[in-house]
Design brief:
The protein is mainly beta. Helix content is 0%, strand content 48%.
């Protein structure tokens, strides 16, 4: 995930990858790994990312807890050193309206970089994974 800046040089940010596994007790756990591909430290929100789940190309309904919060400040970020990888794990079992029969879902998280110092946002598309799940 890189882009050319105004000088024509490539700038690197986070490489994002998401993987889903279904536990023995039928929980849906998503793990997102962010690797700093830059030559300098980058900021990453301490909060878990907000995933989107689709079935047959249509987003399924989010039924989890909605939290209102104030705008993020620099204290809400951690510094990730160059080439370091940080992961976030999320149990999404109760957060989405999964079907009772076994279906194949696609989960996505944004892979962009939002610099909390400059305010610049660099879109990097989406990190995605697919998984089969049957709600109980």
């Amino acid at each position: 995930m890189s882009f050319s800046n105004k000088t024509g040089m490539q700038e690197e940010f986070f490489k994002a990858q998401i993987n889903v596994r279904i536990t023995n007790n039928n929980r849906v756990l998503a793990t997102v790994e962010y690797t700093n591909m830059a030559q300098t430290p980058l900021f990453l929100l301490k909060d878990n990312p907000n995933p989107f789940v689709n079935l047959d190309g249509v987003e399924i309904r989010y039924i989890g807890i909605m939290i209102k919060r104030t705008a993020y400040t620099i204290k809400d970020y951690e510094i990730v050193q160059p080439k370091a990888t940080v992961s976030r794990s999320i149990d999404i079992t109760e957060d989405f309206d999964f079907h009772k029969d076994k279906r194949q879902y696609t989960i996505s998280v944004g892979a962009g970089y939002n610099d909390p110092i400059s305010g610049d946002y660099h879109d990097r598309g989406w990190a995605t994974d697919t998984f089969w799940y049957e709600s109980q």
